[in-house]
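Quick one: co-fold with 7,8-dihydrobiopterin.
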Amino acid sequence: CAQDYAAYAAQDHDTYRRLYARQEALLPGLACDEFIAALPSLGAKDRIPRFDEINERLHKATGWEIVAVPGLIPELPFFTLLANRKFPVTDWIRKPEEFDYIVEPDVFHDLFGHVPMLFDPTFADYVQRYGQGGLKAHDLGAGEKLARLYWYTVEFGLIRQPDGLRAYGAGILSSVGELQHAVRSNDPHRLPLDLLRAMRTRYKIDSYQSSYFVIDSFAQLFGMTAPDFTPLYERLATEPDIEAGVVLPGESEVTG
Ligand code: HBI
Ligand code: FE
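Sure, here it is.
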């Protein structure tokens, strides 16, 4: 669908402005450098930006564009959009009473959380390759396994920078509380990203994560996903799922 800009009430623009201001203040030392560098590319801070204004900049940067959707869409159209360098962005914003938390992604989660990272060429290539892999996974009935990889990278991924751990996942970057929890707290377990381990690991959608996976660079993330996943899916079919928060014997945690 197209973004119905006239449908936004003054209150909606004010909600966006308040969410943006609060979240932007939390980023230093917690959000990865690429995210902080790209955030201004969203344009307006004091109102919900026009998607076509963002698309002019985004398409120039990495050939991606955002498309308005009414909310979560089925797996197949989702993967198809990503494979074509189109990112679905929910076009409505949460109500003031949902200011601190909303389960389903709204325009703030999608724009503030996801879109800045799509300005990074390597990460943008990873997301397209993820979409292409999703189409294959869908045919193999492995969509749920691959959804976990999306969850533990695009939504809740951490990256190790020379100056320490930082967040690149949209679910962390668009959340007030989870930004500190994911990057600083001693409670969650942080493991080096391994494709099989991540795709075996279950996740919860309505609480802070108890497991996070850490990469060393977006080039590493892109490189890991080059091979065909079919042999991985075959192995996954024989290995039991792992509950979030569990560290298996012999696993070494990432400390930062
Ligand atoms: N739909 N709009 C939207 N945004 C998402 O992030 C999304 C989706 N549908 C499915 C989905 N994500 C995940 O299940 C993917 O991992 C498949
Ligand atoms: Fe998301």
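If it helps, The pocket of fe (iii) ion (ligand 2) is lined by residues 105, 109, 113-114, 155, 170-171 (CB under 6 Å).
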